[in-house]
Amino acid sequence: MTPAETSDRVLVLNPVSGNGNHVDDVATLAGDHGFDIRRTEEAGDATRLAREAAPDADLVAAAGGDGTLNAVVNGVAAADALETTTVAVVPAGTGNNFAANVGIEGIEHAFTVIEAGRRRSIDIGTANDRLFVNSCVGGITAEASSETTTESKAELGVLAYVKNTVETVGEFDSLPLRVETASAPDGERARAWEGEALFVLIGNCRRFTGARTAQANVEDGLLEVTIVEDAATANLVGGAALEGLLGRDSAHIIRRRAPSLTIESRGDSVEYSLDGEMLETETLRLETAVQRLTIPVGDGYRPDPDDGDRWPLEVPANR
Ligand SMILES: Nc1ncnc2c1ncn2[C@@H]1O[C@H](COP(=O)(O)OP(=O)(O)OP(=O)(O)O)[C@@H](O)[C@H]1O
């Protein structure tokens, strides 16, 4: 690489994320703040651009949605530069769930936070040989995600995919799975669950309670696991509120909190979405890389979101 191509601050810009109308604003602000802008030209570019930039850059920003951030983090990790490179998020996607969870309210605010905000070191999830920052969701078909409307995403977040899958696929094939969670330092013991699941949802920075931007503790070395049992299908098709289905009292929800887990399919391979990017496999090994990613966070970010708002971990005694 020639010296002209190296830079301390690089912004990877996805021009087609969200509704695409962010490009001019992001380019102007990025220029004002001393970023060298690298635009993606096709799917897959963001990882390569971040990998190329990371050895020289102190700061690599991802301008796009959760998928773009995921690609940038994977690129920085591929350059083995997570310890020396800060990764910033500039929310320009449809859902921008991760940005909301770390207190970044919009494009302009993202640059204010980059200049003045706190830096925190947060956990990253690993799924086989790939990384995710926000969530890993199994059982959502790619077809259904692409058909999910912007309005629906804005209203329900990832639950929109669940609802949409049930509505568009109609009769949904449940997944015969075995899920083994490792013991957690806080005393939760290692456990195995086996059965027919509709969906399996693993949160690193987000939790699946029904609220669009519910934030998990992303510095505790733990993943939050939610399994939606197949017995819930009837309720979903019947139109029961998803918020209720994923709520504290549901008998068809299994919740665990663990530093690592393995999900094994007893049938065909399963399609997983890592922050919106797809991965198909029969066996998925998930772990946390504790506080490995340094990011600028806004004032709204809470290291321990459980204060006063406990995630419903209680489960029936027979589980
Ligand atoms: N120049 C490009 N042309 C076409 N596709 C692209 C380009 N750059 C990136 N992509 C694709 O865009 C997807 C990432 O979109 P991203 O998730 O960032 O936005 P979004 O779907 O609008 O937002 P969110 O995930 O927050 O709902 C990736 O799958 C990537 O392959």
TrEMBL record:
Q: Does the keyword Lipid biosynthesis apply?
A: yes
User: One GO CC term of this entry?
Assistant: plasma membrane
Q: Sorted alphabetically, which SMART domains does this protein's record hold? A: DAGKc (SM00046)
Q: Which cofactor does it need?
A: Mg(2+)
Q: Where is this region: Disordered?
A: 297-319
Print the keywords alphabetically: ATP-binding, Kinase, Lipid biosynthesis, Lipid metabolism, Magnesium, Metal-binding, Nucleotide-binding, Phospholipid biosynthesis, Phospholipid metabolism, Transferase
Q: Which GO terms describe its molecular function?
A: ATP binding; ATP-dependent diacylglycerol kinase activity; metal ion binding
Q: Name one GO biological process term.
A: phospholipid biosynthetic process
* Basic and acidic residues composition-biased segments: 301-312
Q: Which Pfam families match?
A: DAGK_cat (PF00781), YegS_C (PF19279)
* Annotated ranges, domain DAGKc: 5-131
Which InterPro entries does the record associate with it? ATP-NAD_kinase_N, Diacylglycerol/lipid_kinase, Diacylglycerol_kinase_cat_dom, Lipid_Phosphate_FormReg, NAD/diacylglycerol_kinase_sf, YegS/DAGK_C
State the source organism's domain of life: Archaea
Q: What is this protein called?
A: Lipid kinase, YegS/Rv2252/BmrU family
Upper classification of the source organism reads: Archaea, Methanobacteriati, Methanobacteriota, Stenosarchaea group, Halobacteria
